[in-house]
Known about the structure:
TIM Barrel; 13 helices; GH; Beta-glucosidase; alpha/beta; single chain; nine-stranded parallel beta sheet; two-stranded parallel sheet; disordered N terminus
Amino acid sequence: xxxxxxxxxxxxxxxxxxxxxxxxxxxxxxxxxxxxxxxxxxxxxxxxxxxxxxxxxxxxxxxxxxxxxxxxxxxxxxxxxxxxxxxxxxxxxxxxxxxxxxxxxxxxxxxxxxxxxxxxxxxxxxxxxxxxxxxxxxxxxxxxxxxxxxxxxxxxxxxxxxxxxxxxxxxxxxxxxxxxxxxxxxxxxxxxxxxxxxxxxxxxxxxxxxxxxxxxxxxxxxxxxxxxxxxxxxxxxxxxxxxxxxxxxxxxxxxxxxxxxxxxxxxxxxxxxxxxxxxxxxxxxxxxxxxxxxxxxxxxxxxxxxxxxxxxxxxxxxxxxxxxxxxxxxxxxxxxxxxxxxxxxxxxxxxxxxxxxxxxxxxxxxxxxxxxxxxxxxxxxxxxxxxxx
Length: 389
């Protein structure tokens, strides 16, 4: 009998996230990061390597455009080896169903996008239920807010539009709601996370209107979650039960001056991460997950140390944080120029498919695992699917 408590759902407090973006750039080229990092071929080795470092839970993804290249016909050959490799390694997976990419024939603005996505989500849930004994966890649509900005507002990637960010965000929330209902109809055990950016926007020097604009920009980060839980625009179908575990993505550049530069850590205007986490918890009263965090190059271990210390502070304040996901866990080629982004615990593979481990981050991880052991040991109670409003 598989327990539904959060420890067995995630498998370990520290998670590794594999970059699985599959979007079109605005030059028309589709990316496939699972392929370009070779994780699709090396999943078994990758999971086993992470397990040796105490990471038994990951975020990973499906490539919808490969699975449903023909409408209504599912080819699971790109997914099943990864799913079975995770089972064999004893690795718990949070599966991203749509990480910016979708089938070539689909118009993201159409009702068909939502209907097709719901059917795909249900089909995935059936496969996972048949293959896995673990309580399944899904992230239906990755970073709805960022996608709305990047794809709908500034045309950085698909659907490569300008000035339609608010419209795209609502379409992505509708798709998320439809997927949640479809998955629960197949497997009521399923849990769900969001993966939304956690930001802080300061006004800096400016008049009263600038201060109001900065505050409004910061508050917009909560819009997708508010719609999802039905607190805003309930006609879109949101409801409290649609908001389960709140995943938050936090990086070194997630605080900035409105219309200006990034606020460096340590500056008087930089807000400690634990205060941002406390605000989210007070707003939603849901368990939280650091769904993505990481830094590049020599900053990897020091950034991870900072995030962990802030999570400790949040835990001390009573915030129910259920895990920290290092993302990406493996080095990857950059979206725009394909340069190697050295961000991970794991390097890019060599010619024999072997990854090395970045030693400083590995040592920091080991130290943090020991420090967090007390929280893991005491956190054995069940986490309700929906906390009280």
